[in-house]
Amino acid sequence: MYKRRAPGTSEDLTAVPPWTFDALAGAGAVVSSARDLLRLIDAEIDAADGSTQPLRRAMKLAQEPQLDRPGDNVSLGWLIDSTGRYWRNGGTGGYHAFIGFDPKSKRGVVLLASTATALADRLSEALYKILEGTAPPPIKFASAADLAAYAGTYDLSGTKLKVSVDGKRLYLEGPGEPRHRLLPISEREFWIEALQSTAAFERTGDKVARVVFGVGDRTMAAARVEAP
């Protein structure tokens, strides 16, 4: 299995050595495959249906919601979204993983990425829709001209932030900070892995006017003050 493992990379696609542990291997050194995780989904759905096969009762117990509230919830090991789907994600050096299942539709999704970015999780919703037969339209990403238009200096409450283009990639850099790759989500929205935030460029007329950062439920706007 180790010989077949894809080499891990950072969000900027540079090589990253895999994490290894001894006593704490379960915290980030477990190597698995999509086939193994699909078997786990089958077992979890079987447990949700009330199976009495080995371990199924314990798995069913671990699926029980723990919070007395509507909407999103948690169980003993799983997160539960507002539609009742169970999921978990995680990342290690150079890798990211997502697993989810819907006990009502009896469908599940596994995502294994050899790039350490939580952006991979966004594919899960599209995969559920594909399984339902309602595939979403392809995402349109920023063109080279769009990237060039986003470059420049932005003012975030007195702090100057520089957005630059390097080849076909967009980067963000602040005072005393290394530059961060802006991973494309759409034509104008990007993901910053190190900051776990989004950056959306907004125009006034045909000119880029500002970039709005989203961190959780908070937003912060930085006005464009200088072109490159």
Tag the structure with descriptive keywords:
alpha+beta, Lipocalin, 228 residues, five-stranded antiparallel sheet, 35% strand
Please characterize this protein's 3D structure.
There is one protein chain. This protein has four helices and 13 strands. It is of the alpha+beta class. It folds into two domains: 25-132, no CATH class; 144-226, Beta Barrel (Lipocalin). Strand 4 (95-102) and strand 5 (107-113) form a beta hairpin. Helix 1 (34-48) crosses helix 2 (56-63).
Could you give the topology of this structure?
Layout: H1 34-48, H2 56-63, E1 73-74, E2 79-80, E3 86-92, E4 95-102, E5 107-113, H3 123-132, H4 144-150, E6 152-156, E7 159-166, E8 169-173, E9 180-184, E10 189-192, E11 197-204, E12 207-215, E13 218-226
Antiparallel strand pairs: 1-2, 2-3, 3-4, 4-5, 6-7, 6-13, 7-8, 8-9, 9-10, 10-11, 11-12, 12-13
Strand coverage percent: 25-35%
On the 0-100 scale, what is the average pLDDT?
Answer: 93
What is the string of helix and strand elements? HHEEEEEHHEEEEEEEE
Distance between the termini: 48 Å
Count of helices?
Answer: 4
Instruction: Outline the low-pLDDT stretches.
Output: none
Shape: elongated
Largest pleated sheet: 8 strands, antiparallel, barrel
Total domain units:
2
Percent helix, as a range, is: 10-25%
Side by side, the strands of the main sheet go 6-7-8-9-10-11-12-13
- The chain-level structural class is alpha+beta
Number of strands: 13
What's the alpha carbon Rg, rounded to whole Å? 21 Å
